[in-house]
Amino acid sequence: MSAPRSSMNFFVPGLAALGSTLLASALLVLLAFASIAQAGDVVLDGIVATVNGKIITRYELDEQMLPVYEQIRGQTLSPEERRQVEMVRRQSLDRMIDDMLILDDAERYKLKVTDQEVAEQTKLFREKRQLSDEDFLKQLEKQHMGLDDFKRNMKRDLIKHRLIGGVVSAKVVVTDSEVEQEYTSRKAEFSKDGTVQLALVLLPASLSASELKANIESGQMTFAQAAAKYSQGPGAQQGGDIGHIAWKDLAPEWSAALRGLKPGQISPPVRIQELEGLLQVVSIQEGEELPLDAVREQIYSSLHNGKFEKVFKEYLEKLREKAVIEYRNM
Prior knowledge:
Elements: H1 16-30, E1 47-51, E2 54-57, H2 58-64, H3 66-72, H4 79-108, H5 115-128, H6 133-142, H7 147-168, H8 176-185, E3 191-192, E4 195-202, H9 209-217, H10 223-230, E5 241-246, H11 252-258, E6 270-272, E7 275-285, E8 288-289, H12 292-322, E9 325-327
Antiparallel strand pairs: 1-2, 1-9, 3-8, 4-5, 4-7, 6-7
């Protein structure tokens, strides 16, 4: 993978793999959720936030929360579970605000996406999921979304990732010396037939993985106890143990989350479909050591993604500092 260009033409060939991952992730959301309201939209419910004069309604926030509401429907929640739901609701609102800020910044750069680009991406979206025109429209109907809504959301998403590709990724640089240092410190992960034994806690949508991680690390409970009490994943009653997995077979997100961890340590939260989870390294089995050149691209991608997340977070923080954001009654 080549290093990203520093020019501001918002096209970064070296980011092809990362960009496609980001785009695919965002496009999955398009079928499920409606777009963020603009100031001129019809307001069907109360306003939960304003961002530089634009509004987000309670109705739109509830649309974002539908997966959570579906999961807890008919359940009697404890006070702690209700608090967790409210925390997830606030996190959803913050993500909506971040999206609005990114789109505002895209307007500043006068970024455009053509109707042809939207049509091509819509076609790719359908083909990847093997949806005929008729099936695609049925899926939209199930989500109470029209084709024009889908295309509008697609256009906004393409603009957003074009901006991120130029403004954020241009600042991400990985040097050869960094790759070499990473290889030296993580040789066990870059070995042929090397495996890691993992335990997993897969949480319901109403619970926060970050909070659970803090509780485990502070000694309030063990990882095994958390798995037995909360996990919706395999091996819940066996401490969350999901067995030995070859490093090469790990999903990129899992591999990044496990980077540098030793047995007994817990990863940052990872997403599995629509749910959050935590991974614990149980043991590491080293295999035949691979030369640096055999894993150079893999290490580069891992370092690049980590730096990208850091720079992207800083970019959002700067956008928030300059913005006029008002939270209202959620």
